[in-house]
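Consortium newsletter contribution from the modelling node. Members have asked for a concrete example of what our holo predictions look like. Here is one, prepared for the NAP complex that several groups have been discussing at recent meetings.
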Amino acid sequence: MKAIELQAFGFDGLRMVDTHEPDPPPGHVTLRLHAASLNFRDLEIVEGRYGMPVPLPCIPLSDAVGTVSRVGAGVTAWQEGDRVNPLFFPDWIDGPFHPRYFERQLGGNHPGVLRQAMTVPAYAIVRAPRHLGDEAATLSVAALTAWAALTDAALQPGLTIVTIGSGGVALFALQFATMFGVRAIAVTSSAHKIPRLLAAGASAAVDSRAHGEWGEEVLRLTDGVGAHLVLETGGNATFGQSILGLAPGGMVAMIGYVSGPRLEMDMRQVFIAKRARLHGHTVGNARQFDAMNRALEAHGIVPLVDSVHPFADAAAAYRRLASGANVGKVLVKLD
Ligand SMILES: NC(=O)c1ccc[n+]([C@@H]2O[C@H](COP(=O)([O-])OP(=O)(O)OC[C@H]3O[C@@H](n4cnc5c(N)ncnc54)[C@H](OP(=O)(O)O)[C@@H]3O)[C@@H](O)[C@H]2O)c1
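And here is the predicted structure:
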């Protein structure tokens, strides 16, 4: 078996190593991994600027699809041949988030999925959607976060959401919008990506370079009402416009910070004028992941894949994501 370790920060620090996967202990299963995918976080990790400690060497990446190849004693929930996704937080099965779940995050402070096999507790996986092949490697972080944002907002059909950018979280939210019966307005700083965002599920798109005050465009497109949910992935550069385009009492799902993690806000605008509800997100738990996979299956939704890179050149996948040119998830083929 082979794995790729991050032995030093920087793309050149990714090195292939030989590994051996022993028989799974009681209560565990071994997975043969087929494909993995990258998130924004994985760039932060490889570049040594993640917000949490990453002890080196580490096996990077958290999102994968695999097949159960060996079953440890006492495991009844899984059989050889089951196709599954590992959890980003292996210990978060149900209920609210607890800080102890941060102690084990795949591909950060806990060995990740950029390898051909891994052994996990039997509770730390969910069944992959049956209709998906390697595209199922895209679901653990970006899709689950978008899913949690939409389900936590308890939106009624016909209401409006806003997505920011054309990254993984935004694209999944656009694909889910149809399923939830909501109207989606996509905001992008890359006008040439607009046709792809409309094809993904947006009913309108706003070029944030042409419309610096893009919140006004959201108000115009909603007859002055505003959006009921904004999936805020931009951070400080976009938050003010997210509030401007928000309907009074609407929710801002506080997800990401691609423009930087520090936020400035005018509380008069955010809380008094807009009565905004800011709702933080930390991916999701196994119960939510399982519900999302069943919904993807029921609606036949296929994640958008930008490119698939060979295991031996995983650094190319990182470079592709870093380029910002991708529309869709960037995959590494593991088998
Ligand atoms: N809280 C959580 O649980 C959670 C889970 C997943 C992701 N996140 C966070 O959410 C954010 C997005 O993640 P992702 O995986 O979807 O990202 P991604 O795939 O890397 O996409 C980022 C997109 O943001 C846009 N963008 C880039 N620089 C920007 C800037 N300076 N200002 C505004 N927009 C910019 C670009 O779209 P355009 O070219 O179309 O503008 C780009 O495609 C990241 O900060 C990530 O860490 C958080």
